[in-house]
Structure formats: structure tokens, C-alpha cells
Amino acid sequence: MAPHLSLTGYHSIQFYAKDLERAVRWHSEKFDFREVARSTKDSEKRHGMRSIVLRGPGQIGWIFTQPIEEASTAGKYLKSHPEGLGFLNFEVKSIAQACEFLADRKAPFLYDIQEHQVDGGLWRETAIATPLSDAGFRFIEKTNYASFAPGFEWTADWNTVGGNKYKFTDIDHVTCNMRAMIGLTEFYRHCLGFERYWGIDFHTSHHNPGGGTGSGLESIVMWDPHSGIKFATNQPLAPYFNNSQIQIYVEDNGGAGIQHIALSTPEIIPVVRDLRKDGCRFLEAPGKYYEQLPKRMDDNKIGAILEPMDQIRKQGILVDGRDHKYLLQLFMKEMCEQFGDAKGGPFFYEIIQRAGDPGFGDGNFKALFDSIEQGQVALSRQEMRDRIDCLF
């Protein structure tokens, strides 16, 4: 077998927050993620950061970190960016194998392998920089390691704290935005050994050639076939490159970054219904979306779906697929809108239910773009920001 990173899945994601309590409260109240651990006093003093861990989907930790000192990693990140994801943390079968693989491909290590032992358990980790501005990737090998991570102490039992009420099972994929995606997709291919999985390009001028403006993207999905981990990458698309919502994200984020995480659920309708009741805001499909949906489903040979179409439409859920397989998805609005604070940043969540279809909803990409463009691209960037300021 060819050498590979030996990825087994996600350990955690690390979200840098200017307001730690707000971020934790929102994810606890909206997603029902429960607190399981906190940073120790010694760790906070040593690293200049304070963290709270929630149990997210499946076995994945959601770490929220606030700087105590400006010179800390979180402090430096938040000096250049709004709130957002600073690290994706992966588990590997062998840290030695992963490091050898990465070193052979000239990956930019942030530090050498670090080891921590607790009660006979062993934790080994390293991390690399990425083309995603200040966001990094961490690789972890655990052997009988009982703590959540070095520098953390349990505040609840991981196994008894209970699963989230929405039954989020995993991270379906992670999507990143940048002005020139080839640097990232080649990084995935060359440094991480990933392969191309899917791709699309789309511009609103394709169906509105006389509009005189518009927005577009090109997207490529790369994946690790050993673990199934998937990363999508978007870049703006001419002829209106600087009008693209991808470009606007890069400006609002202070550089390239992680745009959204897609959370998997087995039943999307009750999830979206209850999140709406709790005040969560979602992108709305344009009015013609559901008028055109039956024809698109017929053209793609999706066939009948199990979920009631009246509920799909009522909750604004998007449908895509082909050849008698389908997926249901919906995109939440950015955290700055969920929080009512521009400093909350442009990161957002996607909710996705798969019924056999392995794709990424190319038809829904178009619907999503139409929806965002109604409120974003129709205005100049300054006008848009003025409007957002008025909302807050």
C-alpha cells in the first residue's frame, strides 16, 4: 500500500472567540453541545489562553478559546481576523508515519512532536501551517490517553454527558474560501496526499448574461480516501471577480479561511424546524427554487424522496442528487448575523442529510448563490457594510 497520512478522523475543531461565553452559550443553547472540559489554570498561565470544550457531533470536541494575553496564539489570530476557526485537529494511527509523510513533502511544521503522559496513557502531536492564512492543522496520536487533551481537565463525563438532541453524527465536510485556490488544493494533494473528489464552476452571469454584474465561484473538493475526510475549496470566478461573495468573505475574514463546517444529521426536517424556533437564521432560497425543483429532480432522475415535500418547502430545505439518490441541505447565516455582532465573523454552518448521494449539491450551489446575491452582490461592498452596521 502506498504511504499515507494514516488519518482516522477528527479529534476536535478549535474556534477562536473574542467573547468566549457568548460562543459557548450559543452552541450549547442552539446545537445542544454540552460542556465536558476546560483548560487548567497552569495551561492558561503558560499559553495565555482560556478554553472551554463542548462535546460536538459524534466523538468530536468543539474547543472555544479566548485570549488572555494578546501575544498568545488566539490573541494573534484575533488581531488579524474576526472570530473563526484556528485549528482543525485530526487523529492519526501513527504520528511517526504522519510526520515522515509530511516531512517528505516539505510540509511547514509549527513544532516538533510533543509527548504527554498521564496515568500510563500517551499523547503525541504535531502541527503544520497551511495556505489558509493563520489556520493550522494538528495531528494527534493517542494511546490509552484518558484526558481530553494536555492542559485540560474534565468537567463532565464524556460518555454520560449525552448526545446532542439533533443527533449530529459527524463533520460531513469542511469548506474554505480563498482568492486563488490552487495553492490550497495542491497543498492537499502534495503535502497531505489527498485526491480530487468533485468540482464545479458557476457564475450568475451564465443565466443572466445582460445583468452587468454578478457573482461566481469555482469549487474543488479534495478527499482522503482512507478516512473519508473531505475538504471543499472555493475561489472567485470572473468576469466579476471582486464582486464575488468569496472575495467578500476573504475581505471580511482578513484573508483566506475556513468558511463553513457541514454537520451531518439523519433527519434534517426536525433539526431545521427547531433551530428556526430557537431563533437561528438560515439563507433563504429564491422564490423560483421550489417552482423549478420538480423539473430538476426529474431531469436528474432523483425520483421520489421519503420526506414530505410540503415540509421541505416550509422549512426552506434544498434538495439535490441524481440516479435515485439524494441529499437534503441548508446553509445557516454567518455567525456575525447569528450573534448580531460584526466581530462574530463570516463563518457559518451547513446542515446536511444524505440519502445515498455522495455529491455536494451542484444545483443547490446555484440556488445558494442566487440567495446570497440578492442581499450581498446587489449592493456595493461599502453599502453592504453600511447596511450591516445599521442592523446591529
CATH class of the largest domain: Alpha Beta
The spatial strand order of the largest sheet comes to 6-7-8-5-1-4-3-2-9
Q: What is the approximate shape?
A: globular
Strand tally = 17
**DSSP helical segment count:** 12
Average pLDDT metric = 91
Residue share in helix: 25-40%
The end-to-end distance, rounded to whole angstroms, is 55 Å
Low-pLDDT segments, ≥5 res: 376-381, 383-392
CATH fold descriptor of the largest domain: 2,3-Dihydroxybiphenyl 1,2-Dioxygenase, domain 1
String of helices and strands: EHEHEEHEHEEEEEHEEEHEHHHEEHEHH
Domain count: the total is 2
CATH architecture descriptor text of the largest domain: Roll
- Oligomer kind: single chain
C-alpha Rg, in Å? Answer: 21 Å
CATH superfamily of the largest domain: 2,3-Dihydroxybiphenyl 1,2-Dioxygenase, domain 1
